[in-house]
């Protein structure tokens, strides 16, 4: 979980997982793009709207625009260096 400026991990073993770390770094950048606090409001609102539509927690979570960007690019360890600011906006 990314809560600016920290990445919180369930287990110390995840510290060495570049995919998880990259996923969370993408969230940190998303938070910066929206000046941190609005990110959390939009994240929660998007989740709640998805939950009403899908009636399923997992589907609602996976369809949050911020998660879509993070999951789509978590394997590209150069994604953040390439720029791609506001990539989540394309997922709306």
Automatic annotation (TrEMBL):
Q: Which domain of life is it from?
A: Bacteria
TM spans (from-to): 34-52
Q: Which controlled-vocabulary keywords does the entry list?
A: Membrane, Transmembrane, Transmembrane helix
Please state what the protein is called: DUF4157 domain-containing protein
Annotated source species: Pedobacter ginsenosidimutans
């Amino acid at each position: 979980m990314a809560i600016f400026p920290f990445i919180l991990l369930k287990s110390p073993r995840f510290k060495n997982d570049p995919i998880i770390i990259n996923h969370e770094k993408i969230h940190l950048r998303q938070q910066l793009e929206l000046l941190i606090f609005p990110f959390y409001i939009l994240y929660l609102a998007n989740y709640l709207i998805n939950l009403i539509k899908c009636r399923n927690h997992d589907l609602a979570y996976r369809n949050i625009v911020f998660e879509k960007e993070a999951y789509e690019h978590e394997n590209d360890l150069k994604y953040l260096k390439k720029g791609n600011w506001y990539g989540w906006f394309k997922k709306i």
